[in-house]
Specification:
The complex is a heterodimer of chains A (261) and B (309). Chain A is mainly alpha-helical and 261 residues long. Helices cover 75% and strands 0% of the residues of chain A. The two termini of chain B are 18 Å apart.
């Protein structure tokens, strides 16, 4: 055996993941431009909708209260796009070969990016909620409501982060990773994020009501502002858990395929 | 033999990249895999370092099979790939500590190891700066340092000096020589003959996925013949007379005649005297020692059968 204790055991796997998480968080922090843009853009969208379009949109409630959950999900999309790009960067540079030639589980690199993505989302969500409160957002949620909303969002963030990691693995370049993540950025616009779906043409309405983002938004909105949730909560939970499982398997499978030459 | 590869075959789709490559690397030596672009050098290194699986053939590194015991192989090797594998947004020190942590060195030990390597590669002044500010030579040095964190038995270097300026290249060569002197085995690929000549104990020349020749640099050179004097004449008629005088056939250049030589001043005198006595004016004389270039050209341009020297 080599002079260094390597491989095997849960402890080593955890330690490798911790090292890679630390790395990804450090890289995110130093890539401030991307981080700031992934918060500023959704904030701009929120301001645009609140101050420009919002007055003309009838949501049956104060518009700022309506738009916050959608803005949060928009943020998650932006965050996921940058996760996909970071993963693609590692996969297409020499970094992945360096990690693979070490006696470690090289998939720790994906874990690192996903956890860093969750941390970035925690930050962006806090900033968006803070800004929304400053703009007049008045949630009437109990601590339990907040916790449930946070839990659902966390599941959604994890699902999208793993999906982004998978996209980063298949992308042939950082640019194509950014293109592939376009869908994640676009889906919130085809949902009840900014406008109620009942004014959409029937085809679009069918799409927007049956895509995962709408139930998640409706549930978070219900929890924070007291709009009726009904069974959308369960639908949202099912979507998130399903997406998370699917994305995780997708990313892990692609990573294995890509790294077993 | 610390690295033993036999009958390596690898194809990507319908493109045959390796077509039966055998390699034997003795412990503590520098082994160079020399060949033009597309010869299969990188593919070979990827197989030897567990990153890619051979379609056929087997490889043992330090006694471990690269396919079945990949993790054990990874524990004793390191790879410095063609593209520098560093995090631009981390400092040089952070990059090294990260690898140390991945090798489960523990925080203090990883820090000490990073410091040692930074000193050894003359990067102490730059260690707290982000790698994106480093010059090409500094990046290569740090990249090599990264692969030494684990104190590997065999170091694989894929084109370690491609794209470096001459002075950075010399620094890199010195670093490699120092590694060998500490007993590490080095397998490097290069398309620079000079590099293989300077560093390698043994060279394998590969071309089109096959071993074209192997041996020491000197043995390979002697294969393309010994030294010669190149005599340049002003007119072709003079060359014809000189050719008759020395009994050597004219070459491809109508004005240059190659005369076999032992490289001594004595022989040069004799040649010039004979020319003067015969009244054949010679314009220029140069002596030519065969280089690996000659070997390279003679073996990579024609489809010769492999030669074992």
């Amino acid at each position: 055996m080599s002079t260094i204790a390597v491989h095997g055991g849960v402890r080593n796997a955890v330690s490798d993941s911790m090292t890679m998480i630390g790395r990804s968080i450090r890289l995110s922090r130093r890539n401030a431009e991307t981080l700031v843009m992934s918060i500023v853009l959704p904030l701009l969208m929120m301001s645009l909708f609140v101050y420009v379009f919002g007055g003309a949109i009838d949501t049956g409630t104060r518009y700022i209260n309506y738009v916050v959950p959608g803005t949060l999900l928009l943020c998650v999309g932006y965050g996921a796009a940058s996760t996909a790009m970071s993963v693609a960067d590692d996969m297409t540079s020499g970094m992945i070969d360096r990690l693979r030639s070490l006696p470690i589980r090289s998939s720790a690199v994906l874990t690192g990016h996903v956890v860093a993505s969750v941390v970035r989302n925690l930050l962006s969500t806090t900033v968006v909620i803070g800004a929304a409160v400053a703009m007049g957002f008045r949630p009437d949620a109990t601590v339990t409501d907040w916790a449930m909303a946070a839990g659902l969002l966390l599941l959604y963030v994890l699902a999208l982060s793993w999906l982004a990691a998978g996209l980063g693995v298949i992308a042939k370049s950082v640019e194509s990773a950014s293109t592939l993540s376009f869908l994640m950025l676009f889906l919130p616009y085809l949902s009840s994020a900014f406008v109620p779906t009942d004014t959409m043409p029937s085809f679009l309405r069918a799409v927007s009501e049956n895509q995962p983002i709408t139930p998640v938004i409706e549930t978070v909105r219900g929890l924070l502002t007291g709009t009726p949730i009904g069974d959308t909560g369960w639908i949202a939970l099912a979507w998130c858990v399903g997406l998370l499982a699917g994305s995780f398997i997708f990313a892990a499978w692609l990573f294995r395929r890509r790294t077993h030459g | 033999m610390i690295v033993e590869a036999t009958g390596l075959h690898k194809a990507f789709g319908s493109t045959k990249v390796l077509d039966g490559v055998d390699l034997h690397v003795a412990e503590g030596t520098v082994f160079a895999l020399l060949g033009p672009n597309g010869a299969g050098k990188t593919t070979t290194v990827r197989i030897l370092t567990t990153l890619s699986r051979p379609d056929r053939g087997s490889v043992r590194v330090a006694g471990y099979d690269v396919v079945r015991e990949a993790t054990k192989v990874r524990g004793v090797i390191s790879l410095t790939g063609q593209s520098v594998a560093l995090d631009d947004q981390q400092t040089g020190r952070e990059n090294l500590v990260m690898i140390g942590r991945l090798m489960h060195l523990g925080r203090p030990a990883a820090g000490r190891r990073a410091t040692d390597l930074l000193e050894r590669f003359d990067l102490v002044d730059a260690m707290e700066r982000r790698v994106k500010t480093y010059s090409g030579g500094m990046r290569r040095r740090l990249d090599l340092a990264m692969s030494l964190v684990s104190q590997p038995k065999v170091i694989f270097l894929d084109e370690p000096t491609t794209g470096l300026d001459p002075s950075s290249r010399t620094t890199m060569w010195d670093a490699i020589k120092e590694l060998v002197s500490s007993g590490t085995t080095i397998v490097l690929t290069t398309q620079y003959l000079e590099e293989a000549d300077r560093l390698a104990d043994r060279i394998v020349l590969i071309n089109g996925g096959r071993v074209a020749a192997s041996g020491t640099a000197d043995a390979l050179k002697s294969q393309v013949g010994g030294e010669r004097l190149d005599l340049r004449f002003a007119v072709e008629a003079d060359l014809v007379r000189a050719a008759a005088l020395f009994g050597v056939p004219p070459g491809t250049d109508p004005l240059v005649l190659g005369v076999p030589s032992d490289g001594s001043a004595e022989h040069l005198h004799r040649v010039l005297d004979e020319l003067r006595i015969a009244g054949v004016p010679v314009a220029r004389v140069s002596s030519h020692r065969p280089t690996l270039d000659d070997v390279f050209l003679s073996l990579t341009t024609t489809g010769r059968t492999p030669v074992q020297v």
